[in-house]
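Exercise: predict the fold of this chain.
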Amino acid sequence: MSVRIDATDRKILAELQSDASQSLDEIARNIGSSKTPVWNRIRKLKDAGVIRYQTVILDPEALGLEACFFVLIRTSEHDAEWQRRFLEALQVREEVMEAHRLAGDIDYILKVRVANARAYDRFYQALISEVRVQSVTALLSMEEIKATTALPLSED
């Protein structure tokens, strides 16, 4: 379903992206509207799939997940069965925060959150025992400089 998003919708989305726990009254006050129109617009945006779901963002370090690895994977296999097994292996591993299929020399990049290098090695060993890959390069993030879940909402 395609939905037209206007300036008011963008304001509502910006409010939700900054703090989805706000009440409808707070959102309405912050955008200069009233509660019922805000509720109707949020419902419209949910029905259209613009708002996928609402969640809580946890601090990984507070939970002992201090190591963030970016894993670059090359494979020489591209058939449907290999892809099915690979995607299944990624889906069941909660350490995998993101996975992307790429254009270029690297086939896939994963963002993996674990406690330490030993935990990463357990993840790596389990993954390569399930799917064959040509090469794996793991890059340890030394410092997270910017991280956001907020999408840009300008009308460009």
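Check your answer against the key: The radius of gyration is 20 Å.
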